[in-house]
Amino acid sequence: MKIHLVSGGCGFVGRNMTRRLLKTTNDLVFIIDDLSIGTHPSTWLENFSSRIYKDVEIIGKDERLYFWKGDFRNFLFKFRENPRFVQETYGLDFERFSDVFHFAAIVGGRLKIDGDPMAVALDLSIDAEFFYWITRHKPERVLYPSSSAAYPTSLQTESDAIALSEGDIDFKKNLGVPDMTYGWSKMTGEFLAQIAAKHYGVSVVCIRPFSGYGEDQDLTYPVPAIATRAAKKEDPFEVWGSGKQGRDFVHIDDIIDLIFILMDNVHDGSGWNIGSGRLTSFLELIDLFCDIAGYKATIKPLLDKPVGVYSRYCNMDLITEKFGWEPKISLREGMTRVFNAAVDRLKKEGKL
Q1: CB 1 within 8 A of CB 98
Q2: Half-sphere exposure of 153 (CA within 13 A, CB side)
């Protein structure tokens, strides 16, 4: 029996990964989430049904999804007490988890990263417990999601913006300063991943996603928030900062596609970019959404709002050369999907 573990399995990336695993495999999936950010599986799974067994919720007619609600660290503490905690508690016959996807984290948009950096620093605690556990449990394969925020902010200014390459983070040289506590925690996680691979023989790969987005992303993130305002035909259209700051947008489906390619081929804890390799400013993004909505808006800059670095986009040459991978979903197609999802949601809420 193969059992995959998804921490943070009810968050944006976690639930999309969980749905992909349920759709493309016949394996059992065990997810952990405290629902502080994520939403219960009943809100994102079709034909939802479940039953309670001890302290887990077993979901679906085929009962392939197990949901353990709580802080991931508490889940890991139980393994300290009993390394066979899951097998003995829930009667599951397996030796170790197969694929482990570690999405549990204190995350959020710019308001969270800048507004409550010490809460975000708790990611250091979550990751330390996680890496200690995998060196004892020895799952077959591990995914550690780092972030583009781990890159030096000095390479992302208006005057010094470059397409960020994997080699711009090199633990054998002097490191730059990443983006706030979120960037520091992710860079530290990458260092621990390399130690887990080199010293403990764990197969692990790190990804550095850039601005991932999708139809079911939380409204605290800019893409769904902008899409919602365009659906309402907001005019004037408010933008944080000047709107000239840019990001590299990549659809969640493309992110998951590349995750599996990397897990199949990379085992040494190294970090790999996931993006489009294209810089899009928020002014361009607003223009795109307004065009999809069929109107033209006047821009109203909000210069007192947090905006983060000026420019963040990636160089995808290494991925293309080694794996021949390119995103399948264009910016317009992906943003149209997000816009249509926003329209549907607003109609259900009676706001459109």
Answers
A1: no
A2: 13
Which tens digits make up the pLDDT trace of 34-61? 999 999 999 999 999 999 999 999 999 9
> Cα dist. 277→101, 120, 187, 263, 297 in Å?
25, 27, 21, 21, 28
Q: What is the pLDDT of residues 243-278, one digit of tens each?
A: 999 999 999 999 999 999 999 999 999 999 999 999
The Cα 251–Cα 23 span in angstroms is 18
Two tokens at 210?
A: 């850039």
- Cα radius of gyration (the chain): 20
Q: If DSSP states are collapsed to H, E and C, what string results for the chain?
A: CCEEEEECCCCHHHHHHHHHHHHHCCCEEEEEECCCCCCCHHHCCCCCCEEEECCEEEECCCCCEEEEECCHHHHHHHHHHCCCHHHHHHCCCCCCCCEEEECCCCCCCHHHHHHCHHHHCHHHHHHHHHHHHHHHHCCCEEEEECCHHHCCHHHCCCCCCCEECHHHCCCCCCCCCCCHHHHHHHHHHHHHHHHHHHHHCCCEEEEEECEEECCCCCCCCHHHHHHHHHHCCCCCEEEEECCCCEECEEEHHHHHHHHHHHHHHCCEEEEEEECCCCCEEHHHHHHHHHHHHCCCCCEEEECCCCCCCCEEEECCHHHHHHHCCCCCCCHHHHHHHHHHHHHHHHHHCCCC
